[in-house]
Design goal:
disordered N terminus; 10 helices; single chain
Length: about 375
């Protein structure tokens, strides 16, 4: 099957437009997907770092509330002022609350869960000793209260709690280093990956720019051809509205382009009065092409002989009409002049023949 040059040009332009679109989508989507994935990885790493810092903070708070309860107990034992007892229930409640937070935060860490389990009886025992000493002091049994304090059993329990908290804190510190290194590695990896993609995309960016340049160059080339041609050109949509009109058509028809483009060809008086309107409708309906010559009179009264070539074409899935106009008036004038000259020559030749015939007769 033979393909016309115009079809090849249209096909090539379509492929260029498709290729440019695909490159554009690739340039937009690929870095976007990589950046989105990298952002998710970085966000996940940051969350784990924050999780570790939060765990360490709750460990310090746990020890702080237990120490605060012990400090208030000591003040009460020394002074007997019950004002110091008011804060102890709050400290105890906060200590158990911090322990519950820690248990929830370290659900995925068996070693930390085990340390919290080992810490539980020590906390219970320490608070029990604290309440026992307070009861002794309330009953005025100062000797028994001091004896309990001096026994050092409470300090040993506090040391055990502190050791377990320090162990958990060291574990969290180790995890913090690992997670910070992972975060830095993730940031670095995604940065280099984006740099790599950008370096790969540079040729495609240049190709995209070149394709866009070629498309604009092609459009500009076509516009120059249309504007410089002496053949009038009109393009109508499927409903008859004027889409495009070149300067040559304006010059041939001697009309104002802006006003003419606002008219539907069904509304143009010249089209209705001549055979042009039915031929245009037939061309659109039959999706073919037709030619005809029409006598046309301009608005200033000049008579012209015009040749119209009407062709159907498809654009964006819709039927369109291309109308090419040639002004035959100069050729008609030349033809009339040649015809007149021929007649004059024939008349002169006839007179000559008659004259020679008469002279020949007279000579005889």
């Amino acid at each position: 099957m033979n393909i016309s040059p115009s079809s090849k040009i249209s096909l090539n332009r379509g492929l260029l437009a498709l290729l440019a679109t695909l490159i554009f989508l690739g340039l937009v989507c690929v870095p976007g997907v990589v950046a989105f994935r990298g952002q998710n990885q970085i966000s996940s790493s940051i969350q784990w770092v924050q999780h570790t810092l939060e765990t360490r903070n709750h460990l310090q708070k746990l020890m702080s509330f237990i120490a605060s309860a012990e400090s208030h107990q000591r003040e009460y034992l020394l002074t007997g002022n019950e004002v110091h007892l008011k804060n102890i229930p709050f400290d105890v409640a906060q200590a158990y609350s911090e322990k519950a937070f820690l248990k929830e935060l370290t659900t995925d860490n068996f070693e930390q869960q085990n340390s919290l389990q080992l810490m539980e009886p020590f906390i219970v025992e320490r608070l029990k000793l604290l309440n026992t000493a307070i009861d002794y002091r309330k009953k005025k049994q100062i000797t028994e209260a001091l004896a309990q304090v001096k026994s050092g059993h409470g300090k040993e329990i506090m040391r055990s709690i502190q050791d377990l908290i320090d162990h958990m804190d060291q574990e969290e510190s180790r995890l913090l280093v690992i997670r910070q290194e992972k975060l830095a590695h993730t940031v670095q990896k995604n940065k280099y990956l984006l740099y790599f993609l950008l370096s790969l995309e540079l040729p495609f960016v240049l190709a995209f720019i070149y394709l866009v340049y070629r498309l604009f160059e092609s459009v500009d080339f076509n516009q120059k051809i249309i504007s410089k041609t002496t053949q009038g050109l009109l393009v109508y949509g499927p409903t008859g509205s004027c889409i495009s009109m070149n300067q040559a058509a304006e010059s041939i028809l001697k009309i104002h382009r802006v006003e003419y483009q606002l008219l539907n060809f069904h509304q143009i008086e010249f089209w209705s009065q001549s055979r042009l309107l039915p031929v245009a409708k037939m061309t659109l309906d039959q999706k073919g092409s037709n030619e005809l010559e029409i006598d046309y009179q301009t608005q200033d009264g000049e008579s012209k002989r015009l040749h119209f070539s009407l062709t159907h074409f498809m654009s964006s899935g819709k039927s369109h009409l291309l109308v090419l106009i040639d002004d035959l008036t100069p050729f008609r004038r030349e033809k009339d002049a040649l015809t007149l000259a021929k007649l004059e020559a024939e008349k002169t030749s006839r007179f000559k023949d008659e004259f020679l015939a008469n002279m020949s007769h007279e000579i005889r």
